[in-house]
Design a protein that fits this description.
4 helices; 73 residues; mainly alpha; globular; two-stranded antiparallel ribbon
Length: 73
């Protein structure tokens, strides 16, 4: 049984394969952290926020799973 506070593994797998709903779920999960990282002088810099989101999406598409490690071999 996994940690209920984490994004489910299946969602990450779907997001890395480009499923739009899964990508949006990952963005929603990290939205508060992204907004906090984009704060400048007490205000959210939308350019910074968009840049962080773009980099997260790019990282999702580059991510590769080590199936052997996941299967416990």
């Amino acid at each position: 049984m996994g940690n209920p506070n984490l994004i489910p593994y299946e969602t990450i797998v779907r997001a890395t394969s480009g499923e739009p709903e899964a990508v949006n779920e990952v963005l929603r999960y990290y939205s508060q952290r992204i907004r906090h990282a984009a704060l400048e002088n007490g205000h959210v810099n939308t350019d910074t926020e968009d840049s962080i989101k773009s980099r997260l999406i790019a990282a999702l598409f580059k991510f590769r799973f080590d199936e052997q490690a996941y299967n416990g071999r």
